[in-house]
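User: Fold this; tokens only.

Assistant: Input:
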Amino acid sequence: MPATFVGRCLGRLLLLLLCVSFSGGSPAGKYPVTTTQDASQSQANSLTKVQVGLNESSGPDLTTQDFKQPSKEHQSNGSFLQFEILLPGPPGTLLERNISLANATTVELSCKLDPDSHLKSPQVTWKRGNETISHTSKTEDSWSIKLVIVDSSKMGSYSCILKGEEEISATFYLHVPKIEAREKPIITYERDTAVMVCKSDSTPMAWTWYMMSGSKPVIINESLWTDKYLISRLSANVTRLRILKLTKEDAGVYWCEAVFELGKSEGKMKLKVLSIMAPLKPFIAIVAEVIILVTTIILYELYSKRKGKCTGEKACDQTEQLKSGESSSASHRKI
């Protein structure tokens, strides 16, 4: 092997060893030493690259439209509810079913004949209100209709009528959730505060409060009467109205309205505002009765004493007259 080639190899080997010793064990240039400043700069560069990559992406930008809720038809296909009534049912039972629906859904209503029933092979008719409709499926002892409900037009009553030796029927009532409100009148006093609360088993999209002004309903807008009405939503299903500084003019009918996807529902309340003197009226009446009774007793006692005194004076006068008569008669006899 030539001497020049061996010298070059030894020189390169020595140079490599020197680089390793000065770089802390890593070949220089291949694994550079990283400082805190370099790490921060690297992280900033990485974030910049990520943002640029998103902006340069060929796909569409993520906007609010991408997060919109599906259409009503899509929602109705995703929710499916089944309800059934057994006919003729136990004796004395009312063949009705109340169904509360807040959002778009698909509903299947079924009328099933009791296997022990003596009604065999009946003729079955379905009605929506008074309109005859056809059932979508049937078996030997069951008849069903399927409803895709996306708005309030499909709500209402649905009845199945079975005719044979006798006629029996069952009714399904589809309605929006009912509102729970105070049924009895709210009685309070002037200058006090009235509190009204409405509740619902389902979550409405919005709550609105109304009051009756004359013969017209008026929306209560707390922004217009900040010192009179306060509306607060205690939870998604509960709303509260507070009426401050009550006067007699505040008495009347109030109601809350809940808006659901399939319609509206309301709960009414009646407010009575009494005068501050109203609680004192029973007490004043009792005091007046006591005064009248005591006065009557005193007058009666005075009258009784006066009458007794007059009676005694008359008796005394009569006795004196008799004595004087006797003495005069005795003197006449002596003479």
